[in-house]
Amino acid sequence: MGGGKFILSRKEFHDVADFFEAKKKYYAAIDTRPTGIEQISIHQAHGRVLAEKIIAKIDVPPFARSTKDGFAVVASDTFFADEENPKNILFSGEKIAAGDLPEKEISGGICSEIATGAMVPRGANAIVMIEYAETDGNMVIVYRPATPGENIMHAGSDMMQGETLFHEGQILNARETAVIAAQGFTRVPVFKKPVVGIISTGNEILEPGESLSPGKIYDINSRIISDFCIENAAEPKFLGIVKDDFEKIKEKVLEALLFDMVIISGGTSAGTGDLCYRVLEELGKIIVHGVAIKPGKPVVLGVAKKKPFIILPGFPTSAAVTFDLFVRPLIRMKAGLSPDTEYKIIDSTIATRINSDKGKHELVLVNLVKNEATDICSAYPITKSSGSITTFSFADGFLEIPANIETVSKDSRVAINLFSKNIRIADISFIGSHCVMLEPAVIMLRKSGFTTKIMHVGSTLGLEACRRGEADITGIHLLDEKTEEYNLPFLHKDDKLTLFRGYIREQGIVYRKNTTIEKPDLGHFIHIKKLRLINRNKGSGTRILFDILLEAIAKENDFPIEDLKNNISGYDIEANTHTAVSAAVALGKADWGIAIRTAADNYDLAFVSLRDEHYDFCIPNIKLGKPSVKKFLEILKSNEFHENLLKSDGIKIPEDIGDRIWPKSF
Amino acid sequence: MGGGKFILSRKEFHDVADFFEAKKKYYAAIDTRPTGIEQISIHQAHGRVLAEKIIAKIDVPPFARSTKDGFAVVASDTFFADEENPKNILFSGEKIAAGDLPEKEISGGICSEIATGAMVPRGANAIVMIEYAETDGNMVIVYRPATPGENIMHAGSDMMQGETLFHEGQILNARETAVIAAQGFTRVPVFKKPVVGIISTGNEILEPGESLSPGKIYDINSRIISDFCIENAAEPKFLGIVKDDFEKIKEKVLEALLFDMVIISGGTSAGTGDLCYRVLEELGKIIVHGVAIKPGKPVVLGVAKKKPFIILPGFPTSAAVTFDLFVRPLIRMKAGLSPDTEYKIIDSTIATRINSDKGKHELVLVNLVKNEATDICSAYPITKSSGSITTFSFADGFLEIPANIETVSKDSRVAINLFSKNIRIADISFIGSHCVMLEPAVIMLRKSGFTTKIMHVGSTLGLEACRRGEADITGIHLLDEKTEEYNLPFLHKDDKLTLFRGYIREQGIVYRKNTTIEKPDLGHFIHIKKLRLINRNKGSGTRILFDILLEAIAKENDFPIEDLKNNISGYDIEANTHTAVSAAVALGKADWGIAIRTAADNYDLAFVSLRDEHYDFCIPNIKLGKPSVKKFLEILKSNEFHENLLKSDGIKIPEDIGDRIWPKSF
């Protein structure tokens, strides 16, 4: 029965190739030479790769050129000239402007006027600057001596005809195109961009724009692959999505084989993978089928019609890393670039111990944080599943852990492959509780040129990230049950952290205005079975507040707290942000939740205030000197930010906003 | 008389604005807001700047999704299952593939087969991996327990509808476009690229492709400006070159004013500058006329028809730095980016003391070299004139020395503005004597992913650069007159350098084969007045060899050496490379010169051997560990390189090529 099919298809991956062997074997089996050469206009040349060496065809400058406005003279005529005893030289009457061909020859006792950039007349061997001369009738009075060659740029002194200016493989930027323009070239020989045919397969995959039917998701891989191609000097051609149908896939692949390379990203299920490599088997040859890497094991490397044909796994992060490992070097070689983008690899230390499967070349996605202590980057492994697209979008790159290594200990010095050479480590990372009101701050930071990375993990995890020095800034609103105090009780005296006063937010119950409920208080909401809750993630300040309030109710009615929770429909469904909770309620996916008034207002929801809370900012001491952090603290005290805060009813600004409130003494 | 015109035009620059004031004043006077917003296809979005925040419109995944191939079960049915006591669960008969809408509801005792990525059927709360189950008739035998939620990705666990995904100002790379695609968006709101109208003026300026007439040079500035625009998210529109004619310039400017901004680069002479700002005066308003910067003083910042109108100086390097200081921040703001490209600024130390004019904001072009001692960059000021294009093309960026600073001492820690974010510090810099045969090595290095920078300064200056740690590798061929020995005598025992054996080159006289000369030896050549020499630059090994040979001849005929030299026509005309000498002779610009046989052969010239010489490689000890240097030493010993060397008759390969020949003992 059908179950067997899966088990079978699994078997095919039992003995997969070692990573390094696989790569070597594949590149040996295919043509990795550049796709070809084309002559393009210099106006299009920026960013392209030079395919032949460029030799100077003319001298630059092509003639002896004056570098100043002044008078072309025979230097000896000016010797010993000074303010007291200027030298008089007869003016030839000729004024040589830039671009003119001088008519009169200069000889002892005669000079011509000359403009910057103009051709030095025959006989002249120096230019007296205009500042050091005066004209008087037909005489020029020179107040300073000029040495032979002064203010003259000799022919070929910049570039000499016959010199090699650039070699094959040079990437052309303004510096290079300028030199080529100076030589009068209008066209440049560059390597053709390899054209990559990209196909997505899988019955569950839809193209963005199509209406989303149950069980379907939008295609992500073709987007990642296309943009990775662009970043690596290749031209992507997306041929669309094909359903799981051998003939249809084959047809599409034949179309793609008209280009220089074919990349299929298989669906997520082994079944779809099957079809893709069967097509490859029929049209060409499989060189490597499955590699001992994690993630990315199902990658298939083949060749058809002499062209590379690669099947990438379906999960976005698997597709991204396998692209980086096998495809990127290939398209770079075909584009005339070096296969290794070693400049993309950045030196960092691992922030937490990583365990890796022995015998597998493991690829661990990481989030890079500038570590002010070591002044190099700390790499934080990202644990989310490879099925998650946000895993990829939060990752700056990945760490390769070779098959023979089982654990990478904390603080190991490692090299990280950045996913893109455009990736810039965020100047400031907010990791902690979510607050809608941070958005204006983020925008103000960006306007000052600071990039931000924001991860909503809740107050508790945020505070941990802050202690590890991972977060630059952590917004927290943690209520201490005993003291009824916010945030301060959660800091330990040995914490190397500083707490800055933020603002006051109003927490409450949010529900749709049309909801009929006689007594809108918490005790009431939790007892109405038909009203479904959307809860917040564990460790978030809001969740903690909610659980504290439930505790109270439970005590009051001396009812076991666990039963109470189990009776609340939807208690286990979690959202990570106030916005997400409000949206879920507004859209009827749930009936009520706990969120700040600001979020409720944004979705025009009814709001029952539960309590005001302090939303403060915790910063590792070591980060306090960081320009981006300083800027944030400025913003916190700025009127522009306060005005933004006050746009929302739910926010109050305390006197001491932006002040250091912990540690109390220094 | 005419001379006066220049003096006048100079006067206009007598009191120029302070740099910082000028910038502030100008940006206050013009509209620096983004040019506008456009909706573009996500396929074109890569690299663009997001103009509005993006909010999740759907949950991702949109439904509970299986992350494994296996069986959808009620977790409790599998509790306590193991190899000895597997649990049997009835198979519903349904196989849920990715993209399917499950038909059957799961309840205790029943399960369905499910593929990775497929929708989890109602009732099921865990997926048992295929590896841990077997099918037997209509039963599924489960060998391991599954916990509730295992292998299930809940709806919205990746992104939840309503979440803010990205903020305005975000640059879109694969990471971002993938997330946007996952949301099903097909179009993205991005900031319009500001369109910059670019005009070049000057009677001496030609467009590349035009035939070069005397006194003219090719336009460089429009090329630099255009490519700088591209690098900063603007779209350049080059409107061509205009001669020095008020009406013609005005006409062209009116055309350019249809775009978002106008940049004219004036000719080099003050006269041309005149015309440009007179046009600006007539069409708009001058905000800043001349700034106390060096180079770049004549820059003019104005506005016409509410659009920025900037006149850049004519010299390429002046145009480049003034663009960087005044235009780059402006187009970045208009493109929705932060004005400061602070990530472009790199931390380095100044390698040599710099003196700067007091009262002038001075911009010193520098060449960056990775300093292995400090592990940060050393910045080497480039002294060539700003009229030289190669000055710009060799410069990685520039150092700003504010008006109040007169000297920057050696080893000062400074920030350097890179000319482009694409500039990557060369992995290996060859500074020293020129050799044609280095080209294959350079190409082999690039193929291994190492970029090179080559500066031909001759053996002597190269050796100095090597001592300063500026050069990674210096090729030298220095003959010691007394010992008749090459290179070794020029190293001092306290030098922290290592000399590696290179190859042997044949130096000789090169001349055109059709030259009629009865006795082709040096003594003869130097006495034939009608034969013009092209000499080599002072300090080059070849020049030193030549002068030694002349000394000998002078002694022999006991004739004063200076007179001898003065009698050689062309003795003072210098070229920097063997290629340039050979080219000059081949093209009849000179009649003879001294060069290596390889260069002579390349130009099919007659060659009279003078002597064999050792061309060796000197490397600072501190660079020996550098990967690029190690690679070069490998190449030196590689067959591929040797085969390349042997292609040329003029080269011999010694036994000990690539060996360390100094210091002798360690």
Polypeptide structure, described:
2 copies of one chain form a homodimer. With 666 residues, chain A is of the alpha/beta class. In chain A, the strands form 10 sheets. In chain A, strands 31, 32, 33, 34, 35, 36, 37 and 38 form an 8-stranded mixed beta sheet that branches. The first copy, chain A, has a 6-stranded mixed beta sheet with strand order 7-4-6-5-9-8, with no helix packed on it. A 6-stranded mixed beta sheet of chain A has the order 16-13-17-21-20-18, sandwiched between helices. The model of chain A is unreliable at 1-13 (pLDDT under 50). Chain A has 17 helices and 38 strands. Chain A is extended and about 115 Å long. The N and C termini of chain A lie far apart (73 Å). The first copy, chain A, folds into 5 domains: 19-34 and 193-334, MoaB/Mog-like domain (Molybdenum Cofactor Biosythetic Enzyme, Chain A); 37-60 and 158-191, Alpha-Beta Complex (Molybdopterin biosynthesis moea protein, domain 2); 65-153, Molybdopterin biosynthesis moeA protein, domain 3; 344-425, Beta-clip; 440-662, D-Maltodextrin-Binding Protein, domain 2 (3-Layer(aba) Sandwich). In chain A, strand 24 (361-370) and strand 25 (377-381) form a beta hairpin. Chains A and B meet through helix 1, strand 8, helix 3, strand 14 and strand 15 of A and helix 1, strand 8, helix 3, strand 14 and strand 15 of B.
